[in-house]
Amino acid sequence: MIPRYLVDFELDGLPVKETDVIVIGGGIAGMFAAMGASETERVLMITKKSLFDSNTRYAQGGIAAVISEEDSPEFHRQDTLLAGAGLCDPAAVDVLVHEGPEGVKALIRYGTIFDEEDGHFALTKEGAHSQRRILHANGDATGFEIVRALAQKVQTNDRIELWDEHFALDLLTEDGTCYGVLVQRPDGSRVAVRGKAVILCTGGTGQLYRYTTNPEVATGDGIAMAYRAGAVIRDMEFNQFHPTSLCYPGAPRFLISEAVRGEGAYLRNIRGERFMDKYHPLLELAPRDVVARAILSEMEETQSTYVYIDITHESPELIRHRFPTIYEFCLNYGLDMTTDWIPVAPAAHYMMGGVRADLNGETSLKRLFACGEVSSTGVHGANRLASNSLSEAIVFGRRIVDRIRELSPLQGKFSAECKGGRQAAPMGAVVERRLKLQKTMVRYVGLRRNRQGLLKGMDELKRQLPLYQSALTKREELEFANLLTCALLMTEAALNREESRGAHYREDFPERNDREWQKHTIMEREKAIGEEALENV
What we know:
Strand content: 15-25%
Shape: globular
Number of helices: 15
Distance between the termini: 29 Å
Helix content: 25-40%
Structural class: alpha/beta
Number of strands: 25
Oligomer: single chain
Mean pLDDT: 93
Largest sheet: 5 strands, parallel
């Protein structure tokens, strides 16, 4: 059983920090929400590393919004619903496609500079989009430009207090209401923070897998915290693997943006053969789950650990101008995109599921909100459409801020404690445990799944459950505890869904089954693992 709190504590014996809005995490979701809330509230931002350590920073392709006169919200809606494989919430998608352009304008007001051509925004097209609607910055450094602009605003805002290198341990709740968070300071001491609203902006679970495009901080902390606090967690089986991450000796799994295929790149197996025509009529621009599994099939058929992405037929000027970051990164490892085929393989990329949130970003716990990848708003369904993630963060960030302004201040005194008597016994080498967990997830809960493998994976994960009875103090120990929680949830959800849909593929149930499974998987701590429920779309 996963405990209510990660650590032993008594609230009455801790210092208390009072504020209005508590934002946990940085990235586009955290910074955008913090800026909006600061217009009327005092904001405290808590990051376990810094504002610059998030998935947003590494987002290359861009941000999807209806800007062109040739485009329309209805086109964007259709593309999103199609990619989501029947599990999108149509109302949430409507919110995204209609409010996305205004969110982009807000980013521009905050100082984000998007690329232009001939006085108009330079729009590109990505996989499964029917129109050119992807705004980008500095070619393929969109995320970095957004982080640069927002971080500058946050750091100079007198109404935002920033706590870097602080670890949010657990949410503090009473009677279904969240009233704060327990935080561990850099020196190991702890403090309780109270506020009228808490916004989780902690990102996804990429570090569940050995091969990932995510930074080291993506350890599922917000999902695990919310689960322990009793919030509803939804659709954890839908974890997106990006088809094309750099796969080269000595190089990290660097993302080779979907926009490269959007600009005409081919995928080739190690024999040099294009192969996507065997798998989907949209070829290289098919939905990500289709492309990722196609690549895996080709790797197995040719007994290789990679395939190639080839854009050498495009002009060197276009490649260097459109993809300067990717071009330079590959060049550092002796690979020239203008003349070489680049070796790539799938890697864990994005969590579609997460903490269930309504159209105002509010979770099943009052005063607790979730924004960005940590949330499950219903926008992405079973498979996120490329470049919709940044749009979601700003659209729902604005709505969260509007909802918080309607909340009354906290009333009364709250108390919480955990006297579990955890032993201070050493928990062993965390690095080894984390690597073993990642290998288990890759092997049994990866791009392809089946009942036998999922049961074996669950058994291996459950052997780690005694961890929760240990006294955890170091950041890597706490992160591992959160990763284990998310791994258990994801494996159980994948075991439960006996069909294939979007990013979830079961070899023993290879067909999509709308009659029985066009439903969401719901998990709550009050219900033991194995007692997940289903929720209608």
